[in-house]
């Protein structure tokens, strides 16, 4: 038993609201790991168009999502194309409207607002209608509560909530988190994952380490 094919678009028969994103997204600036899924009653097929906003190839930023992530309906990833220059008195983007307003615009005032790639680790759960801002890094095993607005990096195995999102709880103690990150079960071959599901979805770190 090797589990479902990660390239299948709709892995649950008769339940097409859930889709493995690797088989649904082909944008060159989006990278998605095996078994990561999006759940939407309107279907997951338009994830890139509906959920990844202001993502323009000429900017060069990427959305990188790890393996085994669960993304709920209405989650939004705001990319660097949404940023405005903030070094002057006005943040209004006069230059994009042309007709002379582009003259004298210094592109450096905008490019310095670019905050890099947005990165989700493995086994991350993003709650309904959560918003992830540009350049945020979310660690392995983290949980983002519904309707949260994530403005800063999230540590591995943290639970964050609110606007702006803050750590409300760590899922495990520091020692257990270090051991989980060392085990990195998400990188195991799929047949090994299948054989050790009880250890992965259990709460006995020694049993998980024994499977390594």
UniProtKB/TrEMBL annotation:
Molecular-function GO terms, alphabetical: acyltransferase activity
CDD domains: LbH_XAT
Alphabetized InterPro entries for the sequence: Hexapep (IPR001451), Hexapep_transf_CS (IPR018357), Trans_hexapeptide_repeat (IPR050179), Trimer_LpxA-like_sf (IPR011004)
A single BP term in Gene Ontology: response to antibiotic
Pfam families recorded: Hexapep (PF00132)
Keywords, sorted A to Z: Acyltransferase, Antibiotic resistance, Repeat, Transferase
Xref: PANTHER family: ACETYLTRANSFERASE (PTHR43300), ACETYLTRANSFERASE RV3034C-RELATED (PTHR43300:SF11)
Family designation: Belongs to the transferase hexapeptide repeat family.
Name under which the protein is recorded: Chloramphenicol acetyltransferase
């Amino acid at each position: 038993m090797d589990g479902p094919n990660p390239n299948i678009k709709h892995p649950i028969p008769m339940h097409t609201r859930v889709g493995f994103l690797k088989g649904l997204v082909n944008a060159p600036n989006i990278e998605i790991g095996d078994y990561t899924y999006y759940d939407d009653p309107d279907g997951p097929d338009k994830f890139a168009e509906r959920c990844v906003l202001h993502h323009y190839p000429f900017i060069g930023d990427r959305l990188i999502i790890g393996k085994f992530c669960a993304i709920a309906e209405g989650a939004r990833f705001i990319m660097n194309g949404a940023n405005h220059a903030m070094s002057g008195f006005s943040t209004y983007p006069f230059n994009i409207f042309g007709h002379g307003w582009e003259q004298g615009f210094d592109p450096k005032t905008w490019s310095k607002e670019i905050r890099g790639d947005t990165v989700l680790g493995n086994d991350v759960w993003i709650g309904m209608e959560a918003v992830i801002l540009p350049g945020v890094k979310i660690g392995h095993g983290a949980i983002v509560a519904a309707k949260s607005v994530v403005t800063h990096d999230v540590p591995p195995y943290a639970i964050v909530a609110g606007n702006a999102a803050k750590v409300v709880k760590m899922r495990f103690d520091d020692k257990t988190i270090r051991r989980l990150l060392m085990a990195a079960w998400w990188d195991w071959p799929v047949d090994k994952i299948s054989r050790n599901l009880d250890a992965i979805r259990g709460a006995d770190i020694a049993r998980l380490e024994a499977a390594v």
